[in-house]
Amino acid sequence: MKRGKKRSAILLSTMLVTSGLYFAPVNLPIKAAAAAQDVTNPSIKAFDQKVIARVNAERIYQDLYYLSETIGPRVTGTEGEQQAVEFIKNRLLSLGYKVETQEFSIPDKTIGHLHTSDNNEVMVNIPAGSAATPNEGITSLLFDAKLGKAADFTADAKGRIALISRGEITFKEKVDNAVAAGAIGVLIYDNISQPGPLNPSIGGEAAVPVGGISKASGEALLKDVVTQGKTVTMNVQRLKNAKSQNIIATRKPNQGANHDIVHVSAHIDSVPFAPGANDNASGTAVALELANVLKSYPIDKELRFVFVGAEEIGLVGSAHYVSKLSQDEVSRSLANFNMDMVGTGWDNATAIYLNTVDGKANIVSETAKATANRIGTPSELVLYQRGSSDHVSFHDAGIPAVNFIRREPGTANLEPYYHTPNDKIEHVSIERLKEAGDLVGASLYSLIRK
Ligand code: BES
Ligand code: ZN
Which of 147, 217, 362, 444 could share a disulfide with 213, CB 3.0–4.6 Å? Predict the structure, then answer.
């Protein structure tokens, strides 16, 4: 790792001397780095324009549409993530890249489905400790158990799924009371309005399947199902031996061996119930477009696009990717550009944050700042200390890494749609996708071009 950093610094200072470029060496203070920049250099600007002229906002938007609307949620280890993997893989192959699929195991997980007898799907979260159902699920009438206190249950609860409101007593007490009354399942609905379903924590193993649903869903079930004697079907399955994947597309320079490597990453997966338009179809779609734009320009460094699975369950895919790099590859790794949430249309998110794990500038942040100055990126760039995305895995391996992410300047707030079913394409800005593509694309090209 030390070797890698030293090598990069030497390489950069050589470039500064020999080609008049102005990358800031890693250790240069930001002010000195800014002074070293020649924002008027016409040849570098021409290189930038080669990239910018080709970054196509419409294509990025179409890919984002496919990922977030056509596929929808891409939860780790599910069919949705797999569909996104196929889409990305096929695109990269069609662009002429060498493509590798890296499969890895993820922890066992529980998935739930809930639908009414008139075929309305209800969003449900299954808490740790819920019992599973048979494969076909359990189908029954609902019993309106109010707050789920012992006195709220009557003999009618026996053999039914108890529908219980959040509040006053613990989730565990509600489940215990339902089980004592002979209920065969429990659905707990929220008492405050939130876009996603409730995530109840039931503290231990329950004897019956348990699900959390939103306030709106609970009220709709009371009105349309309980009072009209319809049934619901609840299905809870434990997924064992689940897998996720990384897709890696590589382009090597024509000449020489032992080149430095620049890694571009974006995670494929989303959280449950979120179409993940911004988090992170935005980063995925911009990375796909940069793979297109940079597929044939002459380069003297190795370019790798890493489409990462299982980010949302703890950066599992990127940790796996980094763990499979050889010591030699790590030491040749110059930079990681990680795009995660680059496209929100939320008005307040006027800044592009350059998140680094240690809050310090590095070759990626310095390259991005220099590029933004040259190309006139409209948004303010803010260097900020934050983990929470795949750049952490690269950083931990000693590779300089930045997470590009849109936030509100000053507060560093994320968009209000974050990790909710409202993370939809209607809240994405096509101009901001283009801005991210131009910034990261021109930055990349300034590092890897011949
Ligand atoms: N897209 C977010 C990135 C993010 C969120 C960056 C908040 C900075 C702040 C990412 O997908 C995410 O949600 N990350 C998780 C952490 C991860 C280790 C599971 C998070 O922040 O909760
Ligand atoms: Zn994310």
Answer: 217
Distance CA 62, CA 109 (A): 32
Q: What is the DSSP track for 29-52?
A: -HHHHHHT--TT-HHHHHHHHHHH
Residues in contact with ligand 1 (CB, 6 Å cut-off)? 279-280, 311-312, 314-315, 340-341, 386, 388-389, 405, 414
Measured by CA distance, the residue closest to atom 20 of ligand 1 is 388
**CA dist list (Å): 435 to 160, 266, 326, 351, 438:** 54, 16, 34, 11, 5
State which ligand 1 atom lies nearest to the alpha carbon of 280. 1
Q: Could you say which ligand is closest to the alpha carbon of residue 316?
A: 1
- CA nearest ligand 1 atom 22, residue: 388
3-class state of residue 95 by DSSP: coil
Q: pLDDT at position 39, please?
A: 57
pTM for this entry: 0.88
- Ligand 1: which atom is nearest the Cα of residue 419? 13
Interatomic CA distance for residues 89 and 385, integer angstroms: 32
Tokens 């399955």, residue?
Answer: 237
Taken in order 73, 76, 80, 83, the sign of the CA dihedral is positive
CA-nearest residue, atom 13 of ligand 1 = 312
Neighbours of 53 (CB within 10 A): 10
- Residues across the chain: 450
3-class DSSP assignment, residue 311: coil
Cα torsion 46, 47, 50, 51 to 10°: value is -130
User: Which residue, judged by its Cα, is nearest atom 7 of ligand 1?
Assistant: 388
Tell me the CA distances in angstroms from 423 to 57, 216, 376, 415, one per residue in order.
19, 18, 29, 9
Phi, psi of 219 (to 5 degrees): -70, -35
The whole-number pLDDT of residue 255 equals 84
Residue that the structure tokens 């131009």 belong to = 438
| Short-list 52, 53, 68, 59, CA closest to 91 | 59
- Up-side HSE of residue 162: CA atoms within 13 Å toward CB? 34
Closest CA to 276 of 428, 103, 440: 428
Q: How far is the CA of 224 from the centre of ligand 2 (A)?
A: 36
Q: Which tokens go with 376?
A: 């006139």
pLDDT along the chain (450 residues), means of 10: 37 34 36 45 89 98 98 96 98 98 95 95 96 96 98 98 98 98 98 96 96 98 95 95 97 90 98 97 99 97 98 98 98 98 98 98 98 98 98 98 98 97 98 98 96
